[in-house]
Structure formats: C-alpha cells, structure tokens
Amino acid sequence: MRYVTGLQCHLCKAKFPAQALWVCDKCLGPLEVTYDYDAVKRDMTREKIESRPRNLWRYRELLPIEGEPRTGLYSGYTPLVKADRLAKKIGVRELYLKDDSVNHPTFSYKDRVVSVAATRAVELGFEVFGCASTGNLANSVSAHAARLGLQCYVFIPNDLEPSKILGSGIYAPQVVAIKGNYDDVNRLCTQIAEKYGWGFANINLRSYYAEGAKTYGFEIAEQLGWTFPRHVVSPVAGGTLLPRIARAFRELKEVGLVSGDLPTIHAAQAAGCAPVINALHAGLEFPDPVKPNTIARSIAIGNPADGFQVLHAVRSSGGSGAMATDSEILDAVQLIAETEGIFTEPAGGTTMACAMKLIEDGSIPRDESIVICITGNGYKTAEVMNSRVKAPAQLGRGLSEFDNFMEGSAHFAATKN
Length: 417
Ligand SMILES: Cc1ncc(COP(=O)(O)O)c(C=O)c1O
Ligand SMILES: [Zn+2]
Description:
Blueprint: E1 4-9, E2 15-16, E3 31-35, H1 37-43, H2 46-50, E4 80-82, H3 84-90, E5 95-99, H4 110-123, E6 128-132, H5 136-148, E7 151-157, H6 162-169, E8 174-178, H7 182-196, E9 199-200, H8 206-212, H9 214-223, E10 231-235, H10 241-254, E11 264-270, H11 275-282, H12 307-316, E12 321-324, H13 326-340, H14 346-360, E13 370-374, H15 399-407, H16 411-415
Parallel strand pairs: 5-13, 6-7, 6-9, 7-8, 10-11, 10-13, 11-12
Antiparallel strand pairs: 1-2, 1-3, 4-5
Helix pairs in contact: 3-13, 4-5, 4-8, 5-6, 9-10, 11-12, 13-14
The structure holds pyridoxal-5'-phosphate and zinc ion.
Zinc ion binds near residues 11 and 27.
C-alpha cells in the first residue's frame, strides 16, 4: 500500500501491520490506520481530486486499500444541501444538510464504510463477509457482498423495522435475527468472526471500515469550496462517524488541502439511548453502557465500540452534545421534510432535533455556519411517521367535488407557511 504505513493503537500507540487486526493485544485499545502524510501531500492535489469520478474513492490516497476499488463506484459524493428555508425557520444564518439519505446503493452513510471494508475484505482473502447491525449496515453489507459475489451473513436484533429487514433479504444473504439488542448481537458476532474466520465489516475489519467514514468529512470541505464549516452536528451510535469526520478535517489540514480553524463537532443521540451524551455531561472518559429504548432503532447502540473516540473528538473540538425524545425526533423528521423536501429516518431527526437544542442553548451561535449530518432515508422507516402524516383527501371524480373541497378547506394556506 503506497500511503498506508500500518495500524496503530489509539491508546498506547503500539504499531501493527495492516492485516485483519482491530484491537491492540497489549491494552485492548482500538487500532487505526496510519498514513505517510508527506507522501500524500506530494501526490494529492485539489485538481487531481476534482478530476476524478464523483464517488468516495476520489480521496483514495487517504483510504486503506492496496489495489483498485472493488465496489462503491457510485457511493459517496452525496449532496450538501444549502437549507435556506429550514435555516429561516429555526433562526440561523447558514445551514447545510449533508444528505446521505440518497447514498448509493442502500440509502445511508453505511455505503461509505462498507465500500472500504468490502474492498479490503477481498484484498485480505475473506470469502465470507458479514456484520452486526441495527439495520442500515446490514442493508449495505448485503448489497455490496452481492455485487462482489461474496457469501454473506448479516446479524440483526429481532425487533427491527420490516423495511430494514427486507432491505437486506432482497440481496439474498443469510439474515440472522437474534433475540436480544444490538449489543448482544455484536458480542455474538465477535465470537463468530474468531471461530469461523469470516470478515465482519464492523468487527475484525473495523479499522478499515472506519476509514470509509472520513469521506463524509472530506466531501463537506470540498463541497464548501475547500473550506471548513464552523459547526458539524453528527449522530452517534457505535461511534464510527463522528470521530472520523473530525479525523477527515485534521487530515485535510495536515496534507495542505484546506486551511483555517478546525470545526467544532457536536454529538446527537436519542434520549432513549444516550450513553455518550450522559458521559459528556458527567465528565466521564468512557461511556457507561445503557439499555436502549427508542424509536430511533438505527442508532440504538447502548455500548458504543468507539465511545472513547467520540468523547475525545467532541471535547477536543470544543463541542457539546444533546439528546432528543422520540416525539422531538419525529417532529424534526417532519420539519426537514416540510422545509427542504428531504425525508430522513429517525437518526436524521435525532441529529436535527439535537442541533436545534444546541442552537437554543447557545452552544451553536446563530450566525455561524452549521452542517447537520443526515445519515439515513425515511422511506425505510416510513411507518414511524404514520400518526403524523395527514391521510389523503378522498374525493369523487367530478370537478365540483374538488371545488367544494377547496372552499371548505384551509389546507393550502396551511402548507405555505
Ligand atoms: C442512519 C444512521 N445514522 C447514524 C448511525 C451512526 O453510526 P455510528 O455512530 O456507528 O457511526 C447509524 C448506525 O448505526 C445509522 O444507521
Ligand atoms: Zn494499545
């Protein structure tokens, strides 16, 4: 690998080769990929990146693969939507939605991490590819495995939304639903990875998987004309995304692609599963595990694998955290849909609702630029909005019926607020 120098323990800094290793055998700390930034700096220019296809591999010097990308050729480079109507509604000056609800091919940010993990899985010789998942990751692993012709096993808690289950099954992996929550599933998969020698995207391939999440941060800066926003609000479940957005910004600075102050990064969780926010508020270094109970199932992880990194990334950037109730989450899903025409799932609603709280309490000043991470698609979890969406008006075929309906209804004025 031209730019990768190996793996390094995040805690004790011990070094390891770039193999399927994910935990330090000396201190049990997580392993991270290291790069030769001087070499990257020489070879990776803005012009070179901009001349490449609009997918996540345009930042390939900072991604941990040896050969050519095997999958994800249409993943990433999702829209950074300037959300002016939403900004006005909540009283801020400059607001963006980084919209991975339309990521290819499975409509969540997970297509980034899986593209990298799957490519690396093939390079490392794994024939079976799998994951422990709250739904979106299983969808993505199943789709990318199908395209690569890999055998696939995805493990999920048995209470997921029906569309999330079907959204894996359609690609014909073996879906295994476990009686238990995500943290139980994860524990089981750790044993299976070891015993069966399979490649699990978010377990023994985690060091590579996590690198894929950096592309979300690279794109934000590129799409802002190679500048940093002032604030980013990210959801937290296992804790992959948030610290890798921070790492992406640091790396862009390190290799000279972007200058200026690093953004402040804020964490968002559902009140029914907020181990990281609790730890932030209590001043803990590691989150205390919780038992999840929230409508935001995709982010219902009570014992986040990368909780320590999230806390470190938030604190060192001067950021803060907030949690939102299920009802606030659904309100925020609706607000984004009504103002910007984007339908996100409860994870996106959580991020939005928490951002609004941080703006209200002054943690995010109203006149500074803000990016909100929209990481999943609302059509996968549409049923959670059933109680909030008005039923269609039922009319006959004649125009007069419609005329009567218009006379008797204030609905049009109500939608044009
Ligand atoms: C839609 C969505 N957003 C955000 C996350 C957060 O993931 P993590 O903190 O593990 O990166 C997940 C994953 O589990 C997800 O499915
Ligand atoms: Zn270590």
